[in-house]
Amino acid sequence: MSTTATAPRPESTTPSSAKGISGKPVTWRTPIVLAFMAVVALLIFGILGPNQEASFGISSGGDFFQLPAIIVPAFAAGIILSIILLGLAGWTIYLKTKGTAAPAWLPVLFIVVFVVAFLIWVVGGARTPSISLAGLIAGSVTLAVPLVFGSLSGVLCERVGVVNIAIEGQLLGGAFTAAIVSSITKNPFIGLLAAALAGAVISMVLALFSIKYVVNQIIVGVVLNVLVSGLTGFLFSTVMQSDPQKYNSPEGLPIVEIPLLSSIPILGPILFKQSVVGYLMYFAVFAVWVGLFKTKWGLRVRAVGEHPQAADTMGINVNATRFWNVTLGGAVAGIGGSFFTLVAIDSFTKEISGGRGFIALAALIFGRWNPIGAFFAALLFGFADNLQSILTIIGTPVPSQFMAMLPYLVTVLAVAGLVGKSRGPAASGIPYVKG
Amino acid sequence: MVRVLKLELRGITKTFGTLVANDHIDVVVEPGQIHCLLGENGAGKSTLMNVLYGLYEPTDGQILIDDKPVVFRGPSDAMAAGIGMVHQHFMLVPVFTVAENVALGAEPTKAGGFLNLEQTRKKIKDISDKYGFDVDPDALVEDLPVGVQQRVEIIKALVRDANILILDEPTAVLTPQETDELLNIMRQLKANGTSIVFISHKLREVKAVSDIITVIRRGKVVGSTQPETSTTELASMMVGRSVSLTLNKAPANPQETTFEVRDLTVVAPNGQHVVDGISFDIARGEILALAGVQGNGQTELTEAVLGLQERVSGSIRLDGHELVGRSVKQVLSAGVGYVPEDRTVDGLVGTFSVAENLVLDLYDKVPFAKGISMSPAKVLENASSRIEEFDVRTPSAMAPAGKLSGGNQQKVVMARELSRPLRLFIASQPTRGVDVGSIEFLHRRIITERDRGTPVMIVSTELDEVMELADRIAVLYKGKLVGIVPSGTSRDVLGLMMAGIAPDDGASQAPSTSRAEGGDHV
Amino acid sequence: MSEDKGKHVAEPAPEPADQPLSAEQARAAKADLETAGGAKEPSLVPAAAQGGITAERDSSPFRNFFAGSAMTSVLAVLLALIAGGLLIASTDKQVASSAAYLFGRPTDFLAAVWNAATQSYVALFQGAVFNPRAATVAGQFAPIMETLTIATPLITAGLGVALAFRAGLFNIGAQGQIIFAGIFAGWVGFALHLPMGLHLLLVLVAGIIGGAIWGGLVGLLKARTGAHEVILTIMFNYIALYFLRFLLTTPAFQRPGASNPISPVLDPSAIYPQIFGSQYRLHLGFILAIAATVLVWWLLNRSTLGFEFRAVGANPKAAQTAGINVSRATILVMAMAGGLAGMAGVAQVAGTEKVLTEGVAASFGFDAITVALLGRSSPWGTFAAGILFGAFRAGAVQMQVQTGTPIDIVLVVQSLIVLFIAAPPLVRAIFGLNPRRKKMATAATSPKAALPGGAA
After folding, report:
1. Average of pLDDT values for B309-337?
2. Domain limits of chain C?
3. How far apart are the CA of A326 and the nearest CA of chain B, in angstroms?
4. A9 touches chain C (CB under 8 A)
């Protein structure tokens, strides 16, 4: 997505001597933001931290071997972790004075430590300062599944130069189709396939209007969300409600447990005790990443999304590439949508996707248009989502609404350039009109 | 090893609506030849090459390779036939590495569609070594200087075994040193059997490297000639006339100096000093023309006066008031009339009516507005008188300005800027892309403004225009002022100045080829 | 950008003096107008609508109608209604049973389809405009009053979206702006106790300010950091929603003694008076919506500010060169858009709902986008579109009661209308009136594959 609606083509697409050999300038933004966050952490998690012990359960009942819960003195942990944060921030400042940018992993590490500090602080301050870490993480992954698929759909579309605001609609369409097809056929796998198809069809409309009719991609996306919401709502009321037994009792996808491996504490449930959709998620992230960055297809896709004219002069059909990638993206989101009705809940309800398509969009941006980045961003947002409900149960000082707000706030910070530099594909959102 | 190809274009015609860009053009490129297509901007050279590269379908005519007719449906066909093209605006993906850019479209793969860039890297290394390109296959293109990016474009063609390489205005974006290196590369390529079609309008480069020169004017081949032909002769072939339009211009009657620029420096976002310590004055009733090759700081200089540039130091004083640090609105209110160099981008709002465009920077002034309330009647009234005064050919005052022809669009901009009492008038490229009839009209209006006692600053890359309008000529080179000379200064001296050689040492020092780019500008 | 300009005509040779543009050049120029030579996204606003005083606007409404845009709009609405009708029919039991013997008696099937669709639409009409079966005259006119009541927030929020469109900004944030307005206006309404008149005025002002802050913040972030307003407004919608949810759990906002998230009822002095007495819900907000439409029309077409907004929307570089402060315009227009959406929030809190709940914005913020698009971003077009969609909403309730057709059909029709309107060639193709088909075919072959580098 280009930075402004009316922006001329970004500078970077026209080679200019202006850039010089030195490359991108190192800004003060990241160091300042990190330093600010570190100080906040020191004040709130550290100095004003709770004087309780936070308990994190690691093993669940059926685990391979049992580990004792981790007991952390919240106050001390707050202080120590904030000092680590200060150290990391200080290092970026030092690097900046040397004129070099911080390595990419540093902000990631910072975020991880910050989240851990936050978690200890929030649990330590709760009425019952004890949560199951295993449950928290497993729940986060579960909640993240549709987000990951949604953001992968966004990656596929934006990388090829089409903005996909319709992720929400694709998830919803996938959820509905999976439910009804699985109900009728009594076969969840056909439902899964149908969900992918539904997502692809929605995407084709997006592609048709934005590529053939050169309609503003954002308009099409926004309108498609409304259309799918209306269609599924209508069919839910007319068809599904008429005979829920027949039309809205989808056969769920089984949870496939890999013996032994699934009993590993924490990692077991999230990696080896998943539904087919869950396993597909890991595969999809990997496949999209490999596809985009290691294959001929990916090279062409990225070229089309960055500099369509260049791709065209090298004999690549820009609009066909766009059309089929957007379609593929829709299929991926459709699979994500099936998670709602085939895994999470055993029936369809109106608006079952509940705005997760937009969180997926946020994850895509926060993950910097990279499948792996989007995956971790989606995990983070899934974590926030899950934490929100757990926090309400254990009773903490942080209102759960603020936890729910987090993905959106983080995204605002990301697009405003306060957390690193998010640069989408240069030609995203700009139609390619030959001649 | 190298296939020897003979390329022939026979009767190529290409029209866009009523506009005939190429009119029965015949060109034969013999194997291993550097064949130059010489012509002014807009003569039809690039259209011809886009036809040859399969980007345009010719309206009529044939392309023959080794005397066999071929039809190119797209660039892939042209590439398969051994034709490579280096576009004036590079077709490189900035965030890709050199190897990725070179591989794009013909990617070597392992099983399963996985990229195998090792092969590409090796090829790049080979070519790079062979021609001394010094290109790192793993460097990001956006980090490379323009000259190196151009080599990547050449590598892209060579990797595909191009036997005929089209270079479209390749020196337009290069520094003199880079130009020299490119000319050497071209000679090496020729020595290795590659034919080159070299498109240019810069005489010195053309003479330095070509085996044969075909001159194109207004879409037609004017003739072919040898590089030994004299510069003046080539120029007149190219332009089609030895005399330019002459204006009956009264001599200037300069009065007091009201516009002073002192030590003006403009720093680009990348830290480069695009305008570097320039000082000059303009008196009332005088036209100062800024001459120079495109991109030597003229744009930034005028933008600095208007307040569009961010990092400006030094002083710009108009009627004793400092303009540096003022907003555009304040500068305009101080009585500056400004005609930007690209009217469609900076001068007009295409979807607005002619009437609205005629008040684009006056909309909030009396009589067009009182407070924040605008008066459409006054706007239309103003429009009809301006349209009449400047002879703007438009269906109505309400027609969108974007639908007018270039000349009429420029008249709209000029009419707007000249419609109020001015203390300074700046016009960049006042007649670029404007038909001959309008050129004369616009020039007269500029002279009239001068004779009203307004200091006038003209920026033009057209030496003809500069010599015609200017009372004094200032030449910029790489952001520095080479010198200010009187209007009668000879073309040769100005040419040298445009290559950065000041008039006093220019007489004794012959221009080296490395400084050739400006001198040939006709 | 400049190099992209020459896209359609490679190497424009010196033009023959003042020759009128050829048809092909004119078409290319038009495409150029819409997309700035392909260098930018297709405009949100049709080029013809962006100019203030242009030929298209001043010509007679009839000419305009047949010339294109209005005609396309009508056909788009028709097409969407037909599609909606088919959808209704497809789930109708009568239709399903007659389909069983489709080949035996196809007329039965067609009649069933016709009945299913028309019955629903007749019910919709009766619920939205005039109900002849009502017992009293007042009851007969109740539907149109309900339509106008529902249209009120749609119009003002739609105006907010339309205004931003005209400045080149895509404001998806009406939802959040309505919520913020609701928070501000609601709090003033139930927490302060002021005299009649003054209280309501303050409620209105607070709401507008609330919306303006939320919108202006997006403008500020966009102007300062270049962040894309679409992403910002989407995120701001959710932030506003969760913020409201949080507030409704705090003592300052939650109704004393209530366990659910609901605010106290607003003071009677803070409520919009009902225009036609207590029998209809229609309130002062509708009059204010008309006033807002007039104001936005004036702002866009008769004020210097509107001139700036439109110039920035159409060509920010030229606007900047002409001395217009683009950042200021961006912030200002987003604040104003937020303020207009804020009026919708006030209409909800102080008009129809009289309390602040999580659902204060319903889906008005999203509907506003379709309203503005259908209205082609012109103030009166938005007004008309607001009433049309208000009618759909009001009528849909009646339709659901009478025929069992779910309200969701409105969303389908609404979004189809916008899709069709956005792609006039599709509509023309469906109705078989593509006047330029032949020419387009030739145009497709000639200026083929022009490259940015085409113009040397």
Report:
1. 93
2. 62-128+406-433, 145-386
3. 20
4. yes
Chains with ≥3 Cβ pairs under 8 A against A?
Answer: B, C
The token pair at A427 is: 């030609």
Identify the CA nearest to A358 among candidates A260, A225, A193, A246.
A225
Sign of CA dihedral C126, C128, C131, C135: positive
Task: Return the percentage of chain C with pLDDT > 90, whole number.
Answer: 46
Q: Could you report the per-residue pLDDT of B29-72, keeping only the tens digit for each?
A: 988 899 999 887 667 887 888 888 888 888 999 999 888 899 98
Q: How confident is the model at residue A264 (pLDDT cuts 50, 70, 90)?
A: confident
Query: Over the stretch C330-387, which tens digit does the pLDDT of each residue have?
Result: 999 999 999 999 999 999 999 988 999 998 888 899 899 999 988 888 999 999 999 9
C303 CB-near residues (< 8 Å, 6+ apart): B372, B373, B374
Beta carbons of C243 and A312 less than 8 Å apart: no
Q: Is the pLDDT of residue B359 over 90?
A: yes
- Give yes or no for residue A359 having a pLDDT over 50: yes
Q: Is C111 in contact with C95 (CB distance < 8 Å)?
A: no
* A-proximal residues of B, 55-74, CB under 8 Å: 55, 74
Q: Looking at residue B114, what DSSP letter applies?
A: B
With bands split at pLDDT 50, 70 and 90, how would you rate the model's confidence at C149? very high
Closest CA to A429 of C179, C230, B268: C230
CB burial of B386-415 (b: ≥16 within 10 Å; e: otherwise) equals bbeebebebeebbbbbbbbbbbbbbbbbbb
Domains and CATH numbers, chain B: 7-239 (3.40.50.300), 255-335+425-522 (3.40.50.300), 345-420 (no CATH)
Where along chain A do its domains lie?
A: 23-125, 142-378
Disruptive mutation site among C419, C426, C428 for chain A (greatest number of A CBs within 10 Å): C419
B349 to chain A, any CB pair closer than 8 A? The answer is no
Examine the pLDDT at B27 and tell me if it is beyond 80. Answer: yes
Mean pLDDT, residues A360-373 taken together: 89
Helix (H), strand (E) at residue B309:
none
Amino acid letter, residue A299: L
Q: What is the DSSP letter of A239?
A: I
Contact B472, B487 (CB under 8 A): yes
Contact residues, chain C, for B376 at CB < 8 Å: 52-53, 301-302
C430 touches chain A (CB under 8 A): no
State residue A14's pLDDT score.
31
Rg (C-alpha) for chain A, rounded Å, is: 23
How large is the ipTM? 0.81
Closest-CA distance, C441 to chain A, in angstroms, reads 14
CB contact under 8 A, B360 and C30: no
CB contacts under 8 A, C 67-126 vs A, are 87, 91
Q: Which residues of B touch C317 (CB under 8 A)?
A: 345-346
The mean-pLDDT minimum among B423-437, C134-148, C218-232 falls in B423-437
Q: Is A392 left (phi over 0), alpha (psi -120 to 50) or beta?
A: alpha
Report yes or no: C166 at the A interface, CB cutoff 8 Å.
no
Question: Which of C4, C25, C321 has the highest number of chain B CBs within 10 A, making it the mutation to test binding with B?
Answer: C321
Report CB contact under 8 Å: C14, B218.
yes
DSSP reduced 3-state for A91: helix
Residues A339 and A228: their CA atoms lie apart, in Å, by 17
Q: How far is C263 from chain A (nearest CA, A)?
A: 17
Contact between chains at C228 and A2 (C-beta distance less than 8 A):
yes
- Identify the CA nearest to A382 among candidates A105, A147, A40, A158: A147
Alpha helices (runs of H) in C1-136, residue ranges in sequence order: 2-5, 23-35, 47-50, 55-58, 61-67, 69-90, 93-100, 106-128
